[in-house]
Amino acid sequence: LPILFDMLGTFFSLERVQQKFEQVFRLPPSLVTFWFTQSVRDFMAFSAAGAYVPLKQVLCSSLTRVLRMHGAEVESYTTLQIDQVLDQFSQLTCHPDAGDCVSALTARGWRVFALTNGSEDNALATLERAGLIQDFYAVLSTDSISKAKPDPATYDLVKQHVDSGDDLWFVSAHAWDIVGARQAGFKTVFVTTVEKEYMDVHEQQPTEVVDSLLAASQLMISGYQGSRRSAEP
Fold first, then answer.
1. Which of the listed residues 92, 120, 177, 223 has the most CB atoms within 10 Å of its CB?
2. pLDDT-derived band of residue 162, with 50, 70 and 90 as boundaries?
3. Concatenated DSSP letters for 7-61?
4. 122 and 148 in contact (C-beta within 8 Å)?
5. 67 CB neighbour count, 10 Å cutoff
6. Cβ count within 10 A of residue 124
7. pLDDT at 224
8. Taking the model in full, what pTM does it have?
């Protein structure tokens, strides 16, 4: 069975960015969440307007804006200091339970895919450093079609790799991502590690809600094994 994971925030941690941000700018590391969220908002807006710009470029462009919004004297920082923070997006790590999550799934025959709004090269490098690249059937980036999730076309990227009759599962820690995947016909698992709860404003609620990546894999494995057992004579 195929299962698709969001990467940024869901599978990849922003902890290294937060640490460097605090070290260089002497500002609360929680502002990284604000910076990232604003950048994703603008990234989506550019895409919706037909003026796609890769997320990495949006992150780079929006950093000084966020610093000014929070009272920082941007001119007091050197280009090297700013680059040190931006470079951390090329040195992301996976969440601690990410390895156990995908290893458990692949050991039981699941085909694991990555779908990221970030670059394919960065996702591949992060998975390679974590020793997890061999567990992924394919790593897909929205850059390849110049559209941002949650555009329906982005979720269709995985469909060329699976049989039309397969149930498709999507795992994300972002509510907007869950809505997009549900609209595209996926069953979904919302992981509460980032946003803590799913808003009830939209009728497209997640199929399942869990509190960790490992819990998501355990849910998938137990559900799949249960269906296999019930189908046996």
1. 177
2. confident
3. -BTTTEE-HHHHHHHHHHH-S-TTHHHHHHHHHHHHHHHHHHTT----HHHHHHH
4. no
5. 21
6. 16
7. 60
8. 0.90
